[in-house]
Design brief:
The chain starts with a helix and ends with a helix. The strands form three sheets. An eight-stranded mixed sheet has the order 1-2-3-4-5-6-7-8, sandwiched between helices. It has a three-stranded antiparallel sheet with strand order 9-11-10. A three-stranded mixed sheet has the order 12-14-13. The protein is elongated, with a radius of gyration of 24 Å. The chain has three domains: 127 residues; 75 residues, Arc Repressor Mutant, subunit A (Orthogonal Bundle); 108 residues, no CATH class. The protein contains twelve helices and 14 strands. It is 35% helix and 23% strand. About 2% of the residues have low confidence. It has 330 residues and is of the alpha+beta class.
Length: 330
């Protein structure tokens, strides 16, 4: 079995992420680099990367020079900005430690995986996902994934690949979110055959309470525009407009909608902002993550809505939020 195929098989077995071995990259490398590396294209869980197969570890002369040779080979191959991984049959332990120190990803087939971009540090004696320590606050993407899991929008247990598509994330982004959730004790992962699958670590209602210190409002800022200017955007209702749909609270005088802040930078160019409420105005909340991913029946999801109203002081709103949460089929 070739080194490349052995790498693909070992990596899939250890991580559960599918690897597709691609074409050789016929870079115009000088002789000393051709003797050191063979470059191949591959995809890991759908993400493209360049693999540098180490032909002869005895030619490695010092960590700094070796890293410079890797970077030079990538540059000459026209892949300077691409994700990459060094693959070898063997590497001395001192070199492995130093490569970890400078965050150069590598795989020693059958022995060790170090790929910080994917969040993996594995050995044949023990496998563990890096970054298992809890975070002080979940990232926006991770919070969106967590909300979708609690609401049952993703069937559990599931692999990162299966979870990514319905939420519009790449498998690699989903893997990072899972690692963050696992570090905070919100999910568990297990290797089932060639795939690592995820499931909630406790009942959804219990996890929602546990996660409160790590969650934040999805709203970055709120802008006011004319409702006619955004009529064709089909935005989900948010704020008290959504709460009125989930409870007995009356709708607000000024409608509220939600839009991802990234989408606003594209769609909102040239749109006139209105400083005060007027006839025909509405509010648009600019969210840290796409609200439509977990929206239901034309409204933002109830858990994100709760977080967006976290600083509420109106007793009517507080009661309506409690009514909404109590109605959830936890």
């Amino acid at each position: 079995m070739t080194l490349g195929k052995a790498f693909a098989r070992y990596f899939e077995q250890e991580t559960g992420l599918p690897v597709t071995w691609g074409r050789a990259l016929l870079a115009n490398l000088p002789t000393y680099l051709r003797q050191l590396f063979a470059l191949h294209e591959c995809t890991v869980d759908g993400e493209r990367a360049v693999v540098l197969l180490l032909r002869d570890e005895s030619r490695v002369r010092g960590t700094r020079a070796f890293v410079a040779q890797i970077e030079k080979a990538m540059e000459l191959a026209g892949e300077a900005d691409s994700a990459y991984c060094l693959v070898a049959d063997a590497l001395p332990s001192y070199l492995r430690r130093r490569l970890v120190g400078v965050r150069v990803p590598f795989v020693v087939v059958g022995e060790q995986i170090y790929w910080p971009r994917l969040g993996y540090l594995m050995t044949n004696q023990r496998s563990q996902r890096r970054g298992a320590a809890p975070t002080e606050r979940l990232s926006p993407a991770t919070q969106a994934v967590f909300v979708a899991m609690l609401l049952g929008q993703i069937g559990m247990p599931a692999s990162a690949t299966a979870m990514a598509e319905p939420l519009g994330y790449t498998a690699m982004s989903m893997s990072r979110a899972i690692k963050e959730l696992e570090g905070n004790g919100l999910v568990r992962t297990e290797l089932h055959g060639r795939e690592r699958v995820v499931e909630l670590a406790a009942p959804p209602k219990d996890l929602w309470q546990k996660a409160q210190p790590w969650l934040r409002s999805p709203v970055r800022e709120t802008v006011r525009v004319m409702a006619t200017d955004i009529a064709e955007w089909s935005l989900p209702r948010a704020g008290e407009s959504a709460l009125a749909e989930y409870s007995l609270l009356g709708p607000p005088a000024e409608p509220v909608y939600a839009l991802a802040s990234r989408a606003w930078r594209r769609l909102g160019q040239g749109l006139e902002l209105i400083p005060v409420q007027d006839d025909g105005t509405c509010l648009v909340e600019l969210w840290r993550y796409p609200p439509e991913a977990s929206a239901r029946d034309g409204c933002v999801d109830p858990l994100s809505l709760d977080l967006s109203l976290r600083d509420r002081t109106d007793e009517r709103v507080e009661q309506a939020v409690e009514e909404m949460l109590e109605a959830l089929p936890w």
